[in-house]
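Lab notebook, page 48
Experiment: co-folding of the full assembly
Goal: obtain a model of how the components sit together before planning crosslinking
Operator: M.T.
Materials (sequences as entered):
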Amino acid sequence: MTGTRITIDNVTKRYDRVEVIPGLSAQFEAGEFTVILGPSGCGKSTLLNMLAGLEEVTSGRLLFGAREVQNVPAKDRGCAMVFQNYALYPHMSVADNIGYSLKLAKVRKAERVERIAAVARIAGLEGYLDRRPSQLSGGQRQRVAIARAIVREPGVLLFDEPLSNLDAKLRNDMRIELSNLHKRIGATSVFVTHDQVEAMTLADRILILNEGQIEQFATPGEIYHRPRTTFVAEFIGAPAMNLLKARGEGGNLCLASGTPMTTVAHEGEVLAGVRPERIELSDAGLKAQVLYREDLGSHHILLVQLDSGEQMRLSTSQGGANADSSEVFLHIPPDAVHLFDPETQQRIN
Amino acid sequence: MRQGFYSGGWTYTLLVAPILILIVIFFYIPVGLAFFWSFFLERPFGGGSDFVGFQNYARVLSDPEFWSAMRRTLVFMVLAPGLAIGISLILALAADRGLRLSSAARNIIIWPKAVAGASIGVVFVFIFDPFLGVFAPLNEAFPGVWNPRTDGNDAFATILVAQIWNGIPFNFIILLSGLQAIPDTLTKAAAMDGAGPWRRIRDIQLPLLTPQLFLTFVLEFVGTIVEAFGLIDTMTQGGPGGATTLLIYKIYVDGFKAYDLSGAATQTALLILFVGIMVLLQFRLEKHVKYER
Ligand SMILES: Nc1ncnc2c1ncn2[C@@H]1O[C@H](COP(=O)(O)OP(=O)(O)OP(=O)(O)O)[C@@H](O)[C@H]1O
Ligand SMILES: [Mg+2]
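Observation: model returned without errors.
Model output:
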C-alpha cells in the first residue's frame, strides 16, 4: 500500500457569511503522518471534512497525487476516515462493519472474509468479529473503526480526534499502536487533534492552525525549539512558555523595569519567551517570590513573581530543588530565550 | 425491577388503578360479554335469550356477506397502513435529507391528526364529490368516470384515501424524528465507505428506523379498525352496494340497525380473534426490531 500526496492549493471555506478558512495552501507528502493541531473552532474538522469530501470547498483546489478531487464525491476519493465517536453501524456485527466498504466495492465473499480477518488480526480484534458494537469497550470500538478504515487499503487515512473519547491510559496505548500501524501500512495520514502530546508523538510534521490560517507547519522538534510565532510558542508546551516584555541594551536583555535578565545580541524592544523547563534555580541571579507551588510528584511547577512585578512559571528538575523555600533565584541560559517582534508577533532570533 | 424512590407496593397499585379500571370497564368486560353472547340467541326486542352453542358461528361463517366484509377488511388492512407508512417514509426521508422544516411547517402538518376521523370524512365527502370536488373536471371530460356514490371501487378508494390522509401527519413526525436521531456521523461513515444515498437509506437508515416503523405499523393497524369506522359512517355508510362495508361497520349495522345482537356479538368475537392473531404475528415481527443505537 502506498500513500497519496495531498496538495491543498489556496482552499477557502465559507459558511454563509462566515469565512472559516480564508485561503490555505499546504502539501502533505506521500506516506507522511501530518497532525493538524489548533484550538477549538479553528477549522480543523472543516479542513479534514473537505479532504474527505464530506464538506464542499468554497474555492481553491485539492489534489490527491495529480488528480483534482475537490469536486469528486466522497465515495470516489479513495480515502477513509476514523471519527471521534467511532460512528460504527450499531446494527451490524464487527465483521460486517469492517467489511461494509468491501461489500459495496463488490469484492467476492471469500476474499472479503480473508481481508476482514487480516485487519482484525492487525487491530487485535480476533474473537470479536461476531459481536455488536454495543458489546465492545471504547478502546475496542475505536479499533473496529480503525480496522474499518484500513481494510480498503486507502491511499489517504483521515482521523478526527479519534482518541479523545478514551481514558488517559488507553489513549497512550492506542497512540503507540496507531504509530506502529502507520509505519506498517504507509498511507498518507492526516490526524486532527487538540492534544499536543498526541501531536508531538505521532506526527512527522505538525500543522498548527489558528482561525483557519497556518501558524507553522514543521516537524515536532522544530515547532518546540523554534516556534515561528508567539501563538505557537504559547500553544505548544505545558506549562506554556513565559512571554515577557523586554528590551535589548548593550548585550543585555533587560526587563521592562530595567533589571537585566540574561545576555542577548539584540537591540531594542522585544517579547522574550522562556520555556518553564529551561529556567534554572541557582544561588544567585534574578530574585523571585514563590506565589504558588504545584507538586506533580516527579517535579514541581512554581508560579513566581519577580521583584519588578512580572510573573513566570517554571518547572523544577527531578526532585525539585529548594522544595520549601518561598524565595528563589533564577538563572536563564542565553540560549533558552526566544525573541519575538512585539508588533508582528513573529520570531526574530 | 424495584426502585428506591417508590418503596410501598400500594403506591404502584394506586398509580395504575385509574387506567386499569377504565381498561376493565371499557375493554375486558365488553370483550368477555361478546364472547358470552356469541353462544346465545338473543331475542331482538328483549325478553331473554337461549343457549345455542356454536349455532351462531355456523350461521355467520356460512354467510357470504361476512366473508366479503372480511375480504374488504383484509384489503383495507394491507393497503391503508402500507400506503400511509410508505408515503410518510418518502416524505420523512426527503425532509431529513435537506429541507429543514420550520417548526411552523411541522405544526401545520400534524394538525390533521387533531381532527377526528368523522370530521375528516365530512371534508372528504366534499373533496371527492363527483360534481363539486377535485375530480369534477374529470367527470366533465369523461362523464361517469368518477362517482363514489354509485361506483363501489370509487367509494372504497375514497375511504382508503381519507384513511391514509389521516395517518400521514403522525407517521411523518414519528419517522422524521427517528431519522433525525440517527447520528450524522453514521451517514458520513457510510459515505466514506462508498455508499451512495440509496445504499445509505437501505443499509443504514431503514434498519435503524425499524423501531419507529414498527410503532407506526402497529398504530396504523389499529387505525384500520378504529378510525375507519368514523370515515365509513360519515362518507358512505357502507355503500354503495356494500362496497365499503368493512367487518367493523357490518357489526354495527347488524347489531344496531338490524337488531341481530347475537350475530353482531359472534362477529365481534371473530374480529377480536382475528386481531389477536395479527397482534401475535406483530410480536414475532418485533424480534427483528433493532433498538440498539
Ligand atoms: N455547518 C456549519 N455552519 C456554520 N458554521 C460552521 C458549521 N460548521 C462549523 N462551523 C464553524 O466553523 C468553525 C470551525 O469549525 P470546526 O468544526 O472545523 O472546528 P474545529 O477546529 O474542528 O473545533 P473542535 O476542536 O472544537 O472540533 C467554527 O467556528 C464553527 O462554528
Ligand atoms: Mg472538530
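Interpretation: Residues 168-185 of chain A form the longest helix (18 residues).
Next step: discuss with group before ordering constructs.
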